[in-house]
Design goal:
Blueprint: E1 2-4, H1 18-27, E2 30-35, H2 44-54, E3 57-68, E4 71-78, H3 85-111, H4 118-125, H5 132-141, H6 172-181, E5 185-188, H7 202-211, E6 215-219, H8 225-238, E7 241-244, H9 264-272
Parallel strand pairs: 1-2, 2-3, 5-6, 6-7
Antiparallel strand pairs: 3-4, 4-5
């Protein structure tokens, strides 16, 4: 049984509808898939329908946008009650921040001479949660950058870039507590992704473990062997479950579902760690 606990659909910044993500997972030999769209559970209902048809076990999830001391922190949440009022309220604040940032980024880009509008970005997002990847797609379509990935630089919308705008995000320790209170568990996503321009200090991970963090994503396409080995050692010291995931975004990441996986033992440990 292949287990992939981090994937995205068009409900956020993936390229395909939730049902298609599930069908691709099945074709890739993935038997357990977590759909973890950014700050939304909007894709879970169609994903469940597709999972029943495909014979895939769907893990309901979400990737929460967090921030501490100016650094982006991504928190994977699983098996939580989506209608929990505190968690839903916090998710609403994050989504409002996303919408406001998109408008501000578009305004900055327009000021730099880019012929972009908020309507273009909204069309790129479709029914999904608006994010920087949608702005990047529009920039590529306009010929401003060769590919969407080239937009995430200091010249354009990368962190600290000319058109970058910060937004509201949840404190990571608060996110851990909110998800636990909603009956779920949390795993810290790609914390040592140096190629993304950041690595989280080990001391932060220790603090999150003390707050109730259940696991850490060590096997990720953006982690080199040294990062993976270091995270495994740290997880052992802190009693955290080690997971592996593709972080697939469809065509944007090369259709890589199942390229990294979580062991059945780690999956069972995460399930056992759900608050009673």
């Amino acid at each position: 049984m292949r287990i992939d606990l981090h994937s995205h659909s068009a409900a956020s910044d993936g390229s395909e509808p939730p049902g298609e993500v599930v069908r691709r997972a099945r074709a890739a030999g993935v038997g357990v898939l977590a759909l973890t769209d950014h700050d939304t559970t909007g894709g879970l209902a169609p994903a469940r329908d597709a999972a029943r048809e495909a014979g895939v076990t769907l893990v309901p999830g979400m990737e929460m946008s967090c921030r501490r001391d100016g650094l982006s922190v991504h928190m994977l949440a699983y098996w939580f009650a989506p209608d929990d009022p505190e968690l839903a309220r916090e998710r609403g604040r994050v989504l409002e921040g996303r919408d406001g940032r998109a408008a501000a980024v578009v305004a900055k880009l327009a000021g730099l001479g880019v012929p972009i509008t908020l309507d273009m970005v909204a069309r790129a997002a479709g029914d999904g949660v608006v994010g920087r990847p949608h702005i990047a797609r529009v920039l590529a379509d306009l010929g401003v950058v060769p590919t969407p990935a080239d937009a995430f630089t200091a010249e354009w919308i990368g962190t600290g870039g000319r058109a970058h705008v910060p937004r509201y995000a949840t404190d990571p320790a608060r996110a851990v507590r909110l998800v636990r209170a909603a009956g779920g568990v949390t795993v810290l996503a790609h914390p040592k992704a140096a190629r993304r321009g950041y690595t989280l200090p080990d001391a932060w991970i220790a603090e999150l473990a003390a707050a109730g963090l259940a696991g850490v994503e060590a096997d990720h396409p953006d982690h080199d062997p040294a990062a993976r080995a270091g995270l495994r050692g740290l997880a052992g010291d802190l009693g955290l479950v080690v997971t592996g995931s593709s972080d697939d975004h469809g065509e944007l990441t090369g259709h890589r579902l199942g390229c990294e996986t979580t062991s059945p033992e780690a999956y069972e440990a995460l399930m056992a760690g759900r608050p009673g």
